[in-house]
Write a structure and sequence with these properties.
Blueprint (H helix, E strand, L loop, with lengths): L26 H10 L69 H13 L9 H49 L6 H6 L6 H15 L5 H9 L30
Helix pairs in contact: 2-3, 3-5
Bound molecules: calcium ion (2 copies).
Length: 253
C-alpha cells in the first residue's frame, strides 16, 4: 500500500497498477510485453487538443511533428497558413511560442468577443443574422454571469476558510518572533497553558501536512482556485477543431 506520506516514484505515471502496485498508465509494462512479442512500432501522429506539451522533453523532442512547409524562427509564415513559425503546430490560446499563465475559458473569450460588438446595443435595431448573433450573445452573457457568481462565491468561501489559518500563522510568528518555522521548530514550541497558541500550532501542523509550509505557500493557495490548473503550453495542431461546449450547442443558426 502506498500511504499518503510515501513520496510517489518519479515515473509513477508509466508504472502498472497490478505489477508495480502504482495507479499509473501501465505504459512501461505494455511496452515490455510488446517488445517480448517482437512487435515493431508504427508511426502515429498525435494531435493535442488540450493541456500542455513540453516540446523539448527528452522523450518528445526527436519525435515531435514538424510542419514541413515552415522554416522555424525566421518570423515569416512560409507555408502561408496564417501562423508564423508554426513549426510544431500552434498554441491557439496564447499565440506564437507562448505559455499561458491565466488562461480563460472559451465562455469568457466568447463573452469578451461578443460584448465588444453588442454591449449597449438595442436589439430592436437588429435584423437577420445580427439578431440571431445577438440572441446567442444574450445566452453567453447569462451563462458567463452565472459562472462568475459561482466563482465569486467560491472565492468568498475560500477566503473565509483561510482566515483562521492566517490568524494561526500570525499568532505563532508573534509568539516565537520567527517566520517560516520548520515542522521541527513548531513541534518544539512550548505553549504552556496558552490554549489559543496550542490551537494555532495544531492548525499550522495540519496545514503543513497539506503542503502549506510557509506564508508564501499560503498566499499561493489563496490565489489558486481549487478547480483550475493554470500553467500550460498548449501546442495544438492547426488541423484540429474543438467540439462546441454545452453552452454553445443551443446557439440558433
Ligand atoms: Ca505557417
Ligand atoms: Ca517561418
Amino acid at each position: 500500500m502506498v500511504s499518503a506520506q510515501t513520496k510517489a516514484p518519479e515515473n509513477w505515471f508509466t508504472l502498472d497498477a497490478t505489477k508495480d502496485k502504482v495507479q499509473g498508465t501501465g505504459a512501461d509494462e505494455a511496452l515490455r510485453r510488446l517488445k517480448e512479442k517482437g512487435k515493431k512500432g508504427q508511426t502515429v501522429i498525435v494531435a493535442v487538443l488540450d493541456s500542455g506539451v513540453e516540446v523539448d522533453h527528452e522523450d518528445l523532442k526527436d519525435v515531435m511533428w514538424v510542419n514541413p512547409g515552415e522554416i522555424p524562427g525566421n518570423g515569416i509564415d512560409d507555408d502561408k497558413n496564417g501562423y508564423i513559425d508554426d513549426i510544431h503546430g500552434w498554441n491557439f490560446l496564447s499565440g506564437k511560442g507562448g505559455n499561458v499563465n491565466h488562461e480563460t475559458l472559451e465562455l469568457t473569450r466568447e463573452y469578451a468577443r461578443l460584448s465588444k460588438r453588442f454591449k449597449g446595443t438595442d436589439p430592436k435595431n437588429l435584423y437577420g443574422e445580427a439578431k440571431k448573433e445577438y440572441e446567442y450573445y444574450e445566452k453567453v452573457k447569462t451563462a458567463f454571469e452565472e459562472q462568475r457568481a459561482e466563482a465569486e462565491a467560491d472565492l468568498a468561501n475560500a477566503t473565509k476558510q483561510i482566515k483562521p489559518i492566517e490568524d494561526a500563522f500570525d499568532m505563532v510568528e508573534k509568539a516565537t518572533g520567527k517566520k517560516d518555522l520548520t515542522a521541527e521548530e513548531i513541534a518544539k514550541i512550548d505553549a504552556g497553558s496558552d490554549a489559543d497558541l496550542k490551537r494555532s500550532i495544531a492548525i499550522m501542523q495540519a496545514v503543513m501536512a497539506q503542503g502549506v509550509a510557509t506564508r508564501a505557500d499560503l498566499e499561493e493557495a489563496k490565489k489558486k482556485p481549487a478547480s483550475t490548473s493554470t500553467t500550460s503550453s498548449t501546442t495544438t495542431s492547426t488541423l484540429t477543431t474543438t467540439p462546441a461546449p454545452w453552452w454553445a450547442t443551443t446557439r440558433t443558426t
